[in-house]
Amino acid sequence: MRFGFGLPAAGAAANGPDIIRLAQRVEALGFESVWCGDHLVMPTGKITQYPYTADGSFARPPTEGFLEPFTLLAYVAGATQTIKLGMTVIILPYRNPIVQAKMLACLDILSGGRLICGVGVGWLEKEFQVLQASYKDRGPVSDEYLEIFKILWTQETPEFHGKFYDFDGITFAPKPIQRPHPPIWVGGHSRRAIRRAVRYGDAWHPTRQTPAFVGEHLPYLRQEAERQGRDPYTIAISLKRSLHFTDIGLSGEALSRSNNALIGSTSEVIDDVRRCQDLGIEQLTFDFRTGRIDEMLATIEHFAAAVVPAVQG
Q1: Which of 124, 186, 243, 249 could form a disulfide with 197 if both were Cys (CB 3.0 to 4.6 A apart)?
Q2: 130 in a structural domain
């Protein structure tokens, strides 16, 4: 079992010293990865589209902006040595595919081959509108962009002729360090997302779901892999949730059990991680139900000291 933790990309802890402090501590403790998400703007009105709450509401206020993920991970890459740098997830239709492929390749090169390219199709329609990207076509556009990434990263004279994008007569260099390309982790919890993970991805990376939900969908993933002629066990399974311990003196701000967060005592967290292992989940990524850097670090330290030995010993 591998573990990663979210970087503080929004809120009070989203500042250079705290970000580096967290990333370096995660690395020093021997964890696999650090992660950040992708929002460029937020609407001024109430959000009702968020797919991980019953009423579609989004917890963060619209004035609390998010650091841009390419910039954030490049900053962290320069202050770390070994930890993998993950996106959970970049929204593919938001950016030109060739520019995105170039930025991802450069991030992989400059980090020494540490990039995990987490991708998704997005959910916030207002963001699509202001970026002049098609919300309706976000699924097929994302599929084309993934094809373009792979072509640019692996072919000497790449060309592509699709419904939404078309190019030829170019070279694309430098190529990423990782071969054949940086791992692609496909986010999303729908069957369409699973099919996308099987077709293009190295991992399926659902967010804000329970272990039981993931377990219920693994037979479909394996069936779809067999249909597409792919070994299902070449597709890693990852789950991202919030983590909060109730028995180590953290503040009460995180006590809501919404969004399928992992909130419980140390023994409950250990049981949950073991359940994930038994289901075939290979990687867990956690963010936090607190905006305080000291509580984020306390959560990471306690997980390393109490949970990891119990589940890997």
Answers
A1: 186
A2: yes
